[in-house]
Amino acid sequence: MNVLVYLIPASLTLGGLGLIAFVWSLKSNQYDDLEGEAHRILMENDDAPSSDEKS
């Protein structure tokens, strides 16, 4: 039972750090455009040289 004296504060500290990291990622707009990157790979890029062109 003495080990709980160490485990409870350690788990609360780690949980708090995880919560702080999650709130930071929300505030720094890390989750703004989740769909854009997924669809961008499927779109054809006309600016890039195609494999048919030889230089």
Largest sheet: none
Number of helices: 2
Rg over CA atoms, rounded to whole Å, is 23 Å
Number of strands: 0
**What string gives the helices and strands in order?**
HH
Description of the structure:
There is one protein chain. This protein is mainly alpha-helical and 55 residues long. The protein has two helices and no strands. The mean pLDDT is 84.
Give a short overview.
This protein is mostly helical and 55 residues long.
Which key terms come to mind for this protein?
single chain, 55 residues, mainly alpha, 56% helix, rod-shaped
Provide the fold topology.
Layout: H1 4-27, H2 34-40
